Backbone:
């Protein structure tokens, strides 16, 4: 009788251990699956278009990009609110200063005071006024230091904008204007992208045509 009771107790103990072990294994496997799914959903997504690559964390369009901002094929926001890719004109190779130099940028025409937003995330490297050139300008260096985004002829800066400030794609930088050598009859944003080498200053770099990156079209000419 005693041996039978002992066996029953052992059997119950074995079943209890089996149930606990099964529960632990199930918990571990379930947790691993959810961690895997979470990492996939929240993994950074990289979009490239030949010249520029931007890392865009999942959820950024709802968090960092202002409502109404249009994002081009290279992951760059069109830096003037209300402008569509079809509105852009490739002025990159146009002559300037009486033919002394090429434009090396595109002009995005818009009404005075239209919001200007960051095309890509980065750090405000320089806020500079160029009387005979770009007027009120902003230089934003990309997070990896490889690209510099140049915004010129601003009418005004966004309140509180300072050098060293980290900004998100779609964040307000200022307003369209005609400061510097721009004509008051044609307010616009002068937008340029420069490829930067290590140690280069905000005024250095090699120009890259922003037009195909924003418009998704081949360059003209």
Residues:
């Amino acid at each position: 009788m005693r041996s039978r009771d002992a066996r029953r107790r052992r059997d119950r103990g074995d079943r209890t251990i089996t149930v606990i072990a099964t529960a632990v294994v199930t918990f571990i496997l379930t947790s691993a699956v959810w961690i895997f799914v979470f990492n996939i959903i929240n993994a950074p997504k990289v979009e490239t278009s030949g010249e520029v690559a931007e890392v865009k964390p999942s959820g950024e369009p709802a968090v960092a990009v202002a409502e109404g901002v249009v994002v081009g094929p290279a992951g760059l926001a069109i830096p003037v609110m209300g402008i569509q890719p079809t509105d852009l004109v490739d002025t990159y190779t146009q002559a300037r200063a009486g033919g002394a130099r090429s434009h090396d940028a595109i002009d995005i025409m818009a009404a005075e005071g239209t919001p200007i937003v960051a095309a890509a995330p980065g750090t405000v490297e320089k806020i500079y006024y160029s009387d005979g050139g770009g007027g009120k300008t902003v230089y934003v260096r990309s997070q990896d230091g490889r690209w510099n985004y140049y915004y010129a002829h601003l009418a005004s800066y966004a309140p509180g904008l300072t050098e060293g400030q980290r900004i998100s794609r779609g964040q307000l930088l200022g307003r369209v204007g005609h400061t510097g050598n721009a004509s008051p009859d044609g307010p616009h944003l002068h937008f340029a992208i420069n490829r930067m080498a290590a140690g280069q200053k905000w005024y250095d770099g090699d120009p890259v045509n922003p037009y195909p990156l924003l418009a998704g079209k081949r360059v003209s000419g």
